[in-house]
Amino acid sequence: MRPPYPPPPERSAELRRRFAEEARSERPDLSLLCLLVGAEADGELDEAGMDAAQVELDSLAGQLPFRPGGPRAWAVALRELLGERYGFRGSAADYQRLESSLLHQVLVRRRGLPILLSVLWMEVARRAGAPVYGVALPGHFVVGFGPAEEQVLADPFDGGRVLTGGDAELLVAGATGAALEPSMLAPADPLDVVSRILNNVRAWAAARPERTDVALWAVELSLALPSHPARLRVERARLLVQRGDFVDGAVGLEEYAELISGVDEGAAERVRGEARAARAMLN
């Protein structure tokens, strides 16, 4: 199976317009945003394919028991359906595949990164009426059910295993060496989930210098989110230079230098130097 490649420029422009519009809507649709990311990654994912993915999520939700009970009953029902019956889970090898960050591919392969499997769990559970949300533990994304005082956590990467308090503490300690703080168990904002997915895509691309195409669309989608770190602007500019677009890259570098000059003039001058070097490549 060949790795996915982005769509033609005109299709990409339309996808990015829709992504920015949805991200700025009053209640952003997490599944739609993830599918738009998938379509930007995979030129073979057309409108029919995106619709089919939504239909599949609806179908899975329709197979859950009707209001099975409290938070734990919901967690168990999702585990039995998605983890046990359909075999959705993850493994170490999934971290090496771009498809593991694309919702439509996770639906087909039944494999993915913790955050994408959690999106699947959340979207299926939400459609069925469950009190569900994402929980962005440091280094490992999981799903939460119910209010804080009754919260039940499940790990979709481990087939939906229902976690005890000790399990969550071990996950955090394993990722950071730190103790579990109550604030870590708060519901994750949908746009923060999308931002974290795009960070994973950028990390995948950073390890593969030949895939600057992936790095570029991931950083440009990140910049389309209402809130994003300013450093993404210089990352985009450097990618443009790396890809041979020296003029636009230099302009981006100069704009970033102007942005930070009042805070760190030394760093700004270094970035201006990068811009001059990029322009010199035109000679």
UniProtKB/TrEMBL annotation:
InterPro entries: SirB1_N (IPR032698)
UniProt superkingdom: Bacteria
Signal peptide (residue range): none
Pfam family, one: Transglut_core2
Protein SirB1 N-terminal domain residues: 72-199
Family: Belongs to the UPF0162 family.
The protein, known as: Protein SirB1 N-terminal domain-containing protein
Species: Streptomyces caeruleatus
Lineage: Bacteria, Bacillati, Actinomycetota, Actinomycetes, Kitasatosporales
